[in-house]
Give the backbone structure.
Amino acid sequence: MENKEVKDLCLDLLKAESEEQVISILKKAGYWDNPNVWRLIGDREGNYSTIGNQQSRPEAAMTEKLINSIDARLMSECLAQGICPESEQAPQSIREAVARFFEGKKDWMDVGGTIKNWDNKRRREISEGITIAVTGEKRRPCVTITDMGEGQIPDAMHETFLSIDRANKLKIPFVQGKYNMGGTGVLRFCGKENLQLIITKRNPLIVKMMKEANSSTDCWGFTIIRRESPPAALKNSIYTYLSPVGANSNPRKGDALKFKSDSLPIFPDGNKAYVRECNWGSTIKMYNYDMKGFASHACMKSGLLYRLGTMLPEPALPIRVYECRDYRGHSGSFSTTLTGLTVRLEDNKAENLEEGFPDSVPFKVRGQEMIARIYAFKKNKAETYRTNEGVVFAINGQTHGTIPKTIFSRKKVKMGRLVNSLLIIIDCSNISYRAREILFMNSRDRLGGGDLRKELEEELERIIHDHHGLRELREKRKSQEIADRLDDARPLEEVLNDILKSSPSLSALFLSGSRLAKPFKQRGHGENGNQSNGSKEGQKQFCGKLHPSLFKFKKKKYGQLLRRDCEIGRRCRIAFETDVQNDYFKRSANAGRFMVEVLEGDWQEEDFNWSLTLHNGLANASIRVPDDAVIGDEITLQFTVEDDVTSDPFVNVAKLHLRSQTDRKGGNKNRKKRGGQGDTEELQNSGIKLPKIHRVREENWNSDFDRYSACKIVQDEDEQDESQDVYEFYVNVDNLYLKTDMKISKEDPRLIEDKFVYGNALVGLALIRHYREQEKKHSSEQDNGDELEHIWGREFTVEEYVEQTTKALAPFILPMIDNLGTLTEEPISSGGQTGDDE
């Protein structure tokens, strides 16, 4: 074909909006049905085993494409300045690359290299260099990712875009991509034929600076990737790409098509996809991409923008998202800038987050230093920023794995009241490459298993459970609910107690706990339930300093040695007093550093897992001594706090005396079970306290209830015994089925309502117990910490378990109570038939 014909073919494929159109275009050109012009990706017959075993979700696979585009922009800027990316002159981190190439900063360590410090104009300007355009059908859209990156020489495409397992970026420190796999992860989500278009041209300045003279350096190259059914000798499909150049003399070994053109309209503008001309760069178009669950308007809450914001909580560069399908709207509603979850939250902190958040907690597990960024949302605000995620693990701003929000309802965490208001982002950028390989799968969309993950989750459970700000928020929410309560739940509990006592089996399971005299802790709150800083006045607002003027052991003079016992196998908690701001250890400028060193003892720093929470002048360090430590030994630890502004570090030394664990409930923790009761005593020791039950009427439904809702539960903590599960039950007494039965029945409506309330309470208790048993069983059988998966196809909390099950049972609760009790031996023995039927 002539140059113009090749260019027209490229543009026709770019503007095609379905795989059917692509196939028609290729058939007309004589390529689709000619096997000789299709070359194996990676020149490997077994390429399906690699390509088909990557990301498990379409948005995670698409994220890898965006990471490649960010890498390409950073590489382009580096090469265009004549710097070898693998040399010492090149940036040694992604953040340094952004600071040098996009901010013009050499001294970047404190405040440079993060887009959260850019204004909106700057973000918008830079984002036009990487764009996403959603086109075609609303249900089966196409997605095009375009960047002004380095681009590739057409003759070298088989070594870059179309290769597998090549170490193309392995020695480059300022890029994220490592495995040469991300480019193909999207293929399994591209329609039925798995079609993807690639168009690329090398940056001319790179060609000049790096002296890359080649016959095709001034050409655009393009190809189509497809999936072919298995040949006769193979069991798996194969992925191939269009490579007709030279294929007549060398079938299945040709090169991609290429043509000369000064520019191509590959970038979107407004709601038009292929308008803005560009002289170089790369375009990837994925036809009929699987976007179930987020195929609506790309810039809206339920669309692509928000889904990618979770996958890229803090991207190195901003990305512009364009909605180019047939939607109505004003000119500014079709595009917006993707800056990531953390930047969006920082920009709208006052509107969405509770006071004092986000908060940062540095911690260390197996020698690996990480920082937990805790976001506590105001009521009904979290769902705008996350779906089912509870904990997000990120490296250089990209999500590498998540733990669902069920973690907040775990028995050791007890933050069920805040389960729909929390999100934690763990910055794992500083962990070793070895630890990354252990903790994350190569696909970078899910966690691996093993001891590191297990200890990491245990550390997170403790951090969340003990966090002062979260505990105060939990109590604040609880006090607000109590203030709004319209009825006293004590009579309901007494009736429920009688019902449970009437059954020996239920009594054995549930009647181990007693009601607390005080339903919630009053310390740290004013008379009206308002949150305070825990001071004696309960009113004074804590105002921290930019840099600390003190950081010392609580109730000790600075420099005074702290001596204390430490039980092996349990955490040693050490409290510090300070006057610094809550974000001291995480902020982007002049952040503080907390270090733990062993001065005396036969141990290394990496043998100790630790974390540090800082909230309103109180810092709590939690230290876990190795389990194989020897009783009677002493370990001297030095705690150092410093930053780049404070002239002298704060140094505090503690001497820990190791001893065995004591049973904090009294008696020997290893005592044997009495009376041959089997598992009954164990169940009682970890029983569920009788719940407080509240009737909820329609005027108090808000967003938590509707006419089909039956029972919702909220988890609390028993401050006297953490092994006990404590819940408050909220039963919808304006449920549609209950109201219908009350209208038809001749019984006293109050009695019918009571039956509904008690029935839901009993079902709820049974569901809680079953959930906890399965959770414990699952935890013992699998050490990778995965949550329970149920029929909804995702992980969910015990609160959701009770809510959904009781909603399903709502039509049946009253009929079961009223009718099953009337059964006698006669109808049962006759198969349900009465004498009248004979």
User: Anything to note?
Assistant: The longest helix spans residues 749-781. The two ends are 89 Å apart (CA to CA). Confidence is low (pLDDT under 50) at residues 512-539, 663-686, 782-793, 827-838.
